[in-house]
Amino acid sequence: MDRDTLLNLAQSVRDGALAPETLADRLLEASEQTRLLAGGDVSLDTARRDRCGYPEVVYGEGKTPDAIAAIIAAQQERGEPSLVTRIDPAAAADLEVLYPLACHNATARTWRLAAPVGGAACEQEAPQGSVAVVTAGTTDLPVAEEAAETLVWMGVAVTRINDIGVAGPQRLAERLPELRDADVVIVAAGMEGALPSVVGGHVAAPVIAVPTSVGYGASFGGVTALLGMLNSCSSNVAVVNIDAGFKAGYLAGVIASRAAAGRCSSEKGADS
């Protein structure tokens, strides 16, 4: 909290516009924006939701089960939902003992837990916005599922459309109505990475392309797909990193939820 903000809060208390108790809560919250956990090895950004709309997501790879558990416990204490990406199966098993209601997606290597009852959950009773998550082939599923699990955690409706790569163009044609209904389309593809450009030419929505490391020698672990997607002729295609399902899901979720909020505002304006 900077000096100007603090002065404004103090003046609000002086003018009677803000209760002293509220000021105390704000100061306490500001003092705990970074919370050290796991013996100081982890710094939890407790203000992430206030700044960015969603709590901090845990990158599980390389973290000990104890460190992950400490973060989850702190988020649950704050009434927040949790998402862990790239989680080791053993760590997921340990967490499931502590939180049996959690969802572990072994394909996506994700683990998510809703906010405790009464908490400020990301997941809404009615999903906000919609995203189609597409794979060119079934070997792209781990990346696509990471994106889908991220979207579910964000409270966005997900339509999964799998195995519609360019080698079978009729498969894409059959699913076009679903693709055109989505606020955003995510396309995960390896090999030469052609599918996002083709999808982009059929829809009016943003297309987020995810190159995957699927392919033979000259695919160079996804670099060929990445370069092909970056050079897409379809103007509505943007690209994230190789195998970056989480990044694609998060970005799509932010766009879709804002699109839904805009529709809601327009409907309210029309009613009035």
Overview features:
globular; Rossmann fold; alpha/beta; 272 residues; 4-stranded mixed β-sheet; 5-stranded parallel β-sheet
Secondary-structure element order, N to C: HHEEHEHEHEEEHEHEHEHEH
Which strand order do you get reading across the main beta sheet?
8-7-9-10-11
- Per CATH, which architecture of the largest domain? 3-Layer(aba) Sandwich
Major β-sheet profile: 5 strands, parallel
Strand tally: 11
Identify the quaternary structure here.
single chain
The share of residues in helices is 40-55%
- CATH topology name of the largest domain, in short, is Rossmann fold
End-to-end distance = 38 Å
Q: What is the overall silhouette?
A: globular
Question: Pairing-aware structural class of the strands and helices?
Answer: alpha/beta
Low-confidence stretches: none
How much strand content do the residues show?
15-25%
The whole-number mean of residue pLDDT values reads 88
* Radius of gyration, in angstroms, nearest whole number: 21 Å
Helix count from the secondary structure assignment: 10
CATH top-level class of the largest domain: Alpha Beta
Number of domains: 2
Domain PurE: 129-270
GO molecular function: hydrolase activity
InterPro entries: P2CMN_synthase_LarB, PurE_dom
Protein name: AIR carboxylase
Fold and architecture overview:
The structure is a single chain. With 272 residues, the protein is of the alpha/beta class. It folds into two domains: 33-121, no CATH class; 130-260, Rossmann fold (3-Layer(aba) Sandwich), CATH 3.40.50.1970. The protein is 44% helix and 17% strand. The protein contains ten helices and eleven strands. The strands form three sheets. A five-stranded parallel β-sheet has the order 8-7-9-10-11, with helices on both faces. Strands 3-4-6-5 form a four-stranded mixed β-sheet, sandwiched between helices. Strands 1-2 form a two-stranded antiparallel ribbon. Helix 6 (141-154) packs parallel to helix 10. The longest helix has 27 residues, at 245-271. The protein is globular. The protein starts with a helix and ends with a helix.
